[in-house]
Specification:
Helix content is 45%, strand content 0%. It is mainly α. The protein is globular and about 30 Å long.
């Protein structure tokens, strides 16, 4: 899926996932096919410049955004709102 094929709903979900601390770029790649740089480009075009800068400062160097850098392997965070979110491309297992 390329950026041109993304619906507004997809873009909103990607932005939401990118803001979440525990959602990795690998998860976004798996669900939407966007690499980290493509997510950064999407965030740059879809957000106000000040919001983008705030997000970049927040994400840059954050271990939780990269699967390989995470120091926890067991258990994963599940938001209490998870059941209400139905825009995930991957079915619940």
């Amino acid at each position: 899926m390329t950026k041109k094929e993304l619906t507004d709903l997809d873009k909103d979900r990607i932005i939401e996932m990118a803001w979440e601390d525990r959602t990795t770029f690998d998860s976004i790649l798996m669900q939407f096919g966007l690499k980290e740089q493509e997510v950064i480009d999407l965030m740059r075009t879809e957000m106000k410049p000040s919001s983008f800068r705030m997000w970049r400062e927040r994400v840059q160097g954050r271990k939780t955004k990269h699967e390989k850098l995470r120091d926890f392997r067991e258990g994963r965070f599940k938001c209490t709102m998870q059941r209400q979110i139905n825009n995930n491309k991957i079915s619940k297992r």
